[in-house]
Design a protein that fits this description.
The chain is built from 38 helices and 15 strands. By secondary structure, the protein is an alpha/beta fold. The longest helix is centred in the middle third of the chain and has 28 residues, at 474-501.
């Protein structure tokens, strides 16, 4: 077992011993296994993973045949093969092998053996790389407990397990928990290795980096300084490790404002790396970027620029011109040129980076979560900076003499910038949906394998460039670069085949941002699309109509001011049943800002398609007030200033000039989404059911408010308890019954309430084809937005939770579940109890839920910004769906508008509050309005 333990601890390839052989044949088999593993080790160290894999497959087969399928030596062979598959990027296959190895070790050595702990660590590591932090955490925790029991609490291997778990907690955002583990690991290492061991420096550096992230610069500095001292003493003053320590300490000093000392350290680190690694090393490029950032921060742009340009050349030579890291360098150089006022040279660099990110989004949707977030964050910041530059050029065309339209390019960049965490979740879930589609499963698997392989080659290429000149080989670097370029080509070709075969996946996971000309072709004569994008000090607006030149407006208003005004208006509506006066003056002010400048181009329009950005998605557009020249406006403006509660005056709100009186309104997550919604047509099934509805889930809580934030990440049992404890919704029974009657549906057949409103029931109806054949699907329940957590990071709908959660039923219908629906005949999805606003007011959860239902086949989603009082909701739904049932040619947005007006008109006596915008304004339509699709 010595060989096995060495393997599991070091993650290196070593031969299973197979020392039990007695016969000559068994001796020959053992020798062959040894030879195969030695050759595999050589190939592995040379980076020839594809050549090493079949050798290890053969070795595994021989070991299984020699000692049986459940021997510890088989676990060693499985682990060897998993190491290579992981290096190749085939994480799913590696995970399966690691799991089998752990099972064998548990059965043969016992569940508390130290070797089992190391196997658990191996499995946890691959889960972490795959982004399954929730799955990895209990494995790391169990491994730690085993090692503490087997080796004692102060053994160096315990320190290694502590570091593994700490790094995972840091990734999950549990900084306090990670800090405690890092500190304990450091203490163990100091006792075991002495205070000046290189491993101590690494631990000090890890802890210092965490403290810096937490903002505790004072505590981080002495740790960085001590790590630097150890590296200098042990490795010598000119070792690359010393350069790393200098960079870390310099970055900390720069953050504290000590730019003079930081510059000296950055310059010294650069000199060490150039001497030790050569002038074209990737670490040299990093040092150049660090020093340039400092110089730019103190205004020395002339000195910073050549450093950034030299770093860009290094990255292009190392990784190729289309790598995302090259895009990051392009954006950095472009940002510096923008800062110095050189807009003409900055613009093409930004544009080149934008195109790289578009290509990357089409092939990187299944990067591990941290890599994807990094790509998304860097690309998003740069796109916003690019849009700022284009807006400046649009105001002053002389800043860039090129003929390209800054307004058109800004629209395209803004479309690309829309998204965020929900886009990542949708992309990953969409990739899984593609893999589960029988028509595209093979293509999806090929794309996934190529994507993982390309990612693995990139990692190897980066590693090769990180070596010192003494250990790096030019031939190996050249070979890896050629392999990486071929992997890029293969992946691009395979991705294009998949996107062509599965266009719904393309629109969801990797949408090519739409341009204004394409938007015009999709619009109908009575429609206008208005797109908004808020920058720090202004709001950009585009008005698009078919057959007309697009109108572009640059409105001076601070983003922070707009956020405040939207929040204030929303707060004056979202007030429960207190019915304080609505702020009609602010509602008119926002109309003046957002739509009045466009009035002259809206003649003949009765349907507005609005594309709000993350600021305006929380705005209730229908409640904007268009005129102030009547008595009701002045009356209610005075009431608001007085701040007194309303009673008999409530019905008077029906007389105000609401935007909802003049236009049917549809909200779109992006203009790009219109392309998918209006592409092609479908023939409705004549046998479709009018309605299937789910509501009144079995919950224990009391109160009136629906919606909320995802339960926290404290384990599945705690999460399911939080779902159980949410507010019960008995009023949703009457709401769904009213909708059923309006649509002529049998409530007994159409409605799934209480204990029947479960995730398995939804999925069973989907599998049977009933769900997708319903013209209207209604979820009258809590809608949960994505919280800053790790086990439930997607928006979801709450159904009756099970006593014990399982993979098939956790009480939540999430994005991946929705993407698996097949809504072939569904016109409407109704989400009548959602809380759409995230903590930042962005409404990203709404966007994700709506787009997921679009992907599943629904044409539109009727959703509420918050839970509205039961009677008002029931009446509004009845009015809307009576109109839909009576005239299927009526546009859905128009049916919603007429339903709102009817609700207001019915306001009198005990229902006078129906006229208050609280009762009707939270409801809005997302998606397609119901007219025949236009050809693209």
């Amino acid at each position: 077992m010595v060989g096995l333990i060495r393997l599991m601890l070091s993650f290196l390839l070593v031969a299973p011993s197979v020392v039990l052989a007695q016969s000559a044949a068994e001796k020959v088999a053992a020798d062959e296994v040894l030879h195969l593993n030695e050759e595999a080790v050589r190939l592995y160290r040379a980076g020839e993973f594809a050549q090493a894999e079949p050798l290890l497959q053969r070795a595994l087969a021989i070991v299984e045949r020699t000692v049986g399928p459940a021997h510890p030596e088989v676990a060693a062979a499985l682990n060897n093969l998993a190491v290579v598959l992981k290096a190749m990027g085939d994480y799913a296959a590696a995970r399966s092998l690691y799991e089998r190895a752990v099972t064998i070790l548990e059965q043969t050595l016992g569940p508390s053996h130290n070797t089992v702990a190391t196997g658990l660590n191996n499995l946890a590591l691959v889960l972490k790389v795959m982004g399954d932090y929730v799955g990895a955490r209990p494995l790391y925790e169990r491994a730690l407990r085993i090692k503490e029991q087997a080796l004692g609490p102060t053994h160096p291997e315990v320190a290694a397990s502590l570091n593994n778990l700490a790094a995972l907690l840091e990734t999950m955002g549990d900084f306090a928990g990670a800090r405690a583990l890092y500190e304990r690991a450091l203490s163990i290492k100091e006792q075991a290795l002495g205070p000046n061991h290189p491993d101590i420096a690494t631990s000090l550096n890890n802890l210092a980096a965490l403290l810096k992230t937490m903002g505790d610069y004072a505590a981080a500095r002495p740790l960085y300084e001590r790590a630097l001292g150890i590296w200098g003493q042990v490795q010598g003053p000119n070792h690359p490790d010393v350069a790393l320590g200098l960079n870390n300490l310099a970055a900390l000093l720069m953050a504290t404002g000590d730019t003079v000392t930081a510059r000296e350290l950055f310059e010294r680190a650069l000199a060490i790396r150039e001497q030790a690694l050569g002038p074209n090393h990737s670490d040299v490029a990093t040092s150049l970027s660090n020093l340039a950032a400092l110089l730019a921060s103190v205004g020395d742009y002339a000195a910073a620029r050549p450093l950034l340009e030299r770093g860009l050349l290094i990255w292009e030579q190392a990784l190729g011109p289309d790598h995302p890291d090259v895009a990051a360098s392009l954006n950095t150089v472009a940002g510096l040129l923008k800062t110095t006022g050189d807009y003409a040279r900055s613009r093409p660099l930004y544009e080149r980076a934008r195109r790289i990110y578009v290509a990357a989004s089409r092939t990187n949707v299944n990067l591990d979560d941290e890599a994807q977030k990094g790509l998304e964050s860097a690309g998003g910041r740069a796109l916003r900076s690019y849009i700022e530059l284009l807006a400046a050029i649009a105001r002053e065309p002389a800043l860039d003499p090129s003929s390209a339209s800054a307004e058109l390019d800004a629209f395209l960049a803004a479309e690309q910038a829309r998204g965020g965490t929900v886009q990542r979740a949708l992309a990953n879930a969409g990739a899984r949906a593609a893999a589960g589609d029988s028509a595209t499963a093979i293509l999806a698997r090929q794309v996934q394998e190529l994507r993982n392989r390309r990612q693995a080659v990139w990692k190897q290429l980066r590693y090769e460039y990180s070596k010192s000149p003494a250990t790096a080989t030019a031939a190996r670097s050249t070979s890896l670069k050629q392999i990486a370029q071929q992997a890029d080509r293969d992946l691009t070709e395979a991705s294009e085949r998949l996107l062509k075969a599965f266009p719904r996946y393309a629109e969801l996971a990797a949408p090519e941002p739409i341009d204004l000309a394409a938007v015009q072709r999709l619009l109908r004569p009575n429609e206008a699309l208005v797109s908004y994008f808020a920058l720090k000090d202004r709001l950009l607006v585009w008005l698009v109509r078919p057959g007309q030149t697009p109108l572009y407006k640059d409105i001076e208003i601070k983003r922070s001011e707009l956020v405040t005004e939207v929040s204030r208006l929303r707060a004056s509506i979202e007030q429960g049943l207190s019915f304080r006066p609505f702020d009609v003056e602010l509602a008119h002010k926002l109309y003046q800002r957002l739509l009045a400048p466009l009035e002259g181009r809206l003649v003949g329009v009765n349907h507005l398609l609005l594309v709000p950005d993350d600021v305006l998605l929380a705005l209730l557009f229908g409640a904007l007030v268009t005129r102030t020249d009547d008595g009701p406006y002045r009356t209610f403006a005075a009431f608001y200033k007085e701040g007194r509660p309303l009673a008999g005056e409530l019905a008077g709100y029906a007389q105000l000039a609401w935007l909802a009186r003049e236009y049917a309104i549809t909200i779109l997550p992006s203009a790009t989404s219109l392309r998918g919604l209006r592409r092609g047509s479908r023939t409705p099934s004549v046998e479709g059911e009018p309605l299937i509805g789910f509501g009144d889930p079995v919950l224990r809580g009391r109160g009136w408010r629906r919606g909320g934030v995802m339960p926290g990440s404290r384990g599945p049992s705690v999460a399911i308890n939080e779902v159980h404890g949410m507010v019960s919704l008995p009023g949703t029974r009457d709401e769904l019954t009213a909708v059923a009657k309006a649509l002529g549906a049998d409530p007994q057949r159409a409605l799934y309430l209480g204990a029947r409103a479960t995730e398995p029931v939804v999925m069973s109806l989907n599998s049977a084809g009933r769900l997708g054949n319903a013209q209207v699907i209604a979820f009258a329940t809590h809608g949960l937005i994505a919280g800053e957590i790790t086990d439930l990071r997607q928006p979801a709908l709450v159904l009756t939770p099970p006593a014990t959660p399982s993979e098939e039923d956790d009480g939540l219908l999430g994005l991946q579940d929705i993407l698996g629906l097949r809504l072939v005949n569904t016109d409407w999805v109704v989400l009548s109890a959602c809380n759409t606003a995230a903590d930042d007011g962005s409404g990203e959860g709404l966007s994700g839920l709506a787009r997921a239902f679009f992907f599943a086949g629904a044409r539109s989603v009727l959703v509420s910004h918050w839970s509205v009082e039961d009677r008002a909701t029931q009446t509004l739904m009845t009015e809307v769906f009576h109109r839909y049932a009576a005239d299927k040619t009526l546009a859905r947005a128009e049916a919603v508008r007429q339903g709102m007006l009817a609700l207001m008109a019915s306001a009198h006596g005990h229902t006078a509050y129906f006229a208050h915008p609280y009762a009707w304004a939270p409801f809005f339509l997302v998606g397609e309005d119901g007219k025949c699709p236009t050809a693209d």
